[in-house]
Amino acid sequence: MTRERLYLYDTTLRDGQQTQGVQFSTAEKVTIATALDTLGVDYIEGGWPGANPTDSAFFDAAPTTRAKMTAFGMTKRNGMSAQNDDVLAAVMNAGTDTVCLVGKTHDFHVSAALGITLEENTDNIAKSIAHLVAQGREALFDAEHFFDGYRANPDYALTAIKAAYDAGARWIVLCDTNGGTMPAEVGRITGEVIAAGIPGDRLGIHTHNDTENAVACSLAAIDAGARQIQGTLNGLGERCGNANLTTLIPILLLKEPYISRFDTGIPLDSLANLTQISRALDEILNRVPTKQAAFVGSSAFAHKAGLHASAILKDPSTYEHIDPALVGNTRIIPMSNQAGQSNLRRRLESAGLTIAKGDPALGQILDEVKAREAEGYSYDTAQASFELLARKALGQMPDLFEVKRYRVTVERRKNKYDQMVSLSEAVVVVKVDGEKRLSVSESMDTEGCDRGPVNALSKALVKDLGQYSALLEDMHLVDFKVRITQGGTEAVTRVIIDSEDGQGRRWSTVGVSANIVDASFEALLDAIRWKLIRDRKG
């Protein structure tokens, strides 16, 4: 059976930039566009040229891509021609072969927001699209608020999109702008649009995630006959976000009936880069990746229950709907007080520690995990700390260095501008390579701001670790989480540190103490030791 072509349209750089707290630089946009092109999407919407300096600069610096680079804008304003509308001209001047224009299709918005007649709005749509086509551009029309408009006045909503279609638009994109339409209704209305004369291979879908249904609504539209999906990486977008392409793409490539019915143009070897691309975007945004994200989250293939892990050992398909390697992810067997010996052996094997079934050390490690979790530790997420615990129990923990003592101080004082500032300073004494070494460090960054006592400790600790110092140069802390596990005067603090290195590895460690600095230092020590075990020679 010949598969139908399904087109993927990414709007991370435009609609994704409307996420609260997100603002891409031009260089970051170039990096993201290059990654999207490597993945294999068909269209990359670069932004709205003329709307802000960054978007305009991006189109000047945009990389050469196989994907169709697309400029976004709006239909011409009332009372002027398409040729003389300076806002539309700025979009055209971006020089892209493909242009997407948004226009009103809900009669309420035409009268209330634009303050013009329905006929004037339809005329603006038709003339704007015709202008693009006359200039040799591939034209897309984003039918804003289409589903709300169709419910209120189906005749006008259809009239508006037919105006764009008749004027030569390659794609008519039905937008659930408010994100409140349910999947069944999206499917029904999409089918009715096709029955009314807009062919499915000219129809796209653009959904928002305000009811957590953006992916389901997109699939419903495809099931009904639409052949273009618009979305964003990691589901970025205004309010609750857009349809998540990092979820949709693997569904389309790995799940029936889509794998048999459609060709997306994305090869399976590119799909294996999906997790890395997703996390690279979070790194650009300085955000912690969502652990529970489908397909690409660090917990997407984590198996905590002992019963599950036992079955995974026999056949991974018992509790995994796909092979995690297909999307560039990995299986994780977390350790917790719910763990059994099968779970434990699986986790040890993934860390390169082989132990025979029934070995007494298994019971000892489990008892140690459960006892420490009763004290406040959590190895559910701190996989690196668990590995170190297991190595000690198995007698496989190398003697790297020993911390003899440390001290950290925090001082508040006035600077030369008579402003109150803080300064953290740490002293660490370690025994390494057979000798004691003392290191002192402040926590000031390049701009003269105090980064806190844990930063000072980290800098002092790695400052002089003899043969190991060079191995730690590419290591940095990417997240720091603090939780109080008991209340009142007996409060215990748990600190989880996420670290990353230049090889793209990410690992988590845990420390527990009544003192937050001591808990942080314990987690920091584990992070460094795990890194050295992985990278040291011999």
From TrEMBL:
GO terms for molecular function: (R)-citramalate synthase activity; 2-isopropylmalate synthase activity. It catalyses: pyruvate + acetyl-CoA + H2O = (3R)-citramalate + CoA + H(+). Gene3D superfamilies: 1.10.238.260, 3.30.160.270, Aldolase class I. GO terms for biological process: isoleucine biosynthetic process; L-leucine biosynthetic process. InterPro entries: 2-isopropylmalate_synth_dimer (IPR013709), AIPM/Hcit_synth_CS (IPR002034), Aldolase_TIM (IPR013785), Citramal_synthase (IPR005675), LeuA/HCS_post-cat (IPR054691), LeuA_allosteric_dom_sf (IPR036230), PYR_CT (IPR000891). It comes from the Bacteria. The keyword Transmembrane does not apply. Pfam families: HCS_D2 (PF22617), HMGL-like (PF00682), LeuA_dimer (PF08502). Residues 6-272 form the Pyruvate carboxyltransferase domain. Signal peptide: none annotated. Its EC number is 2.3.3.21. Keywords: Amino-acid biosynthesis, Branched-chain amino acid biosynthesis, Isoleucine biosynthesis, Transferase. PROSITE patterns: AIPM_HOMOCIT_SYNTH_1 (PS00815), PYR_CT (PS50991). The keyword Cell division does not apply. Pathway: Amino-acid biosynthesis; L-isoleucine biosynthesis; 2-oxobutanoate from pyruvate: step 1/3. Belongs to the alpha-IPM synthase/homocitrate synthase family. This is Citramalate synthase. It comes from Sulfitobacter litoralis.
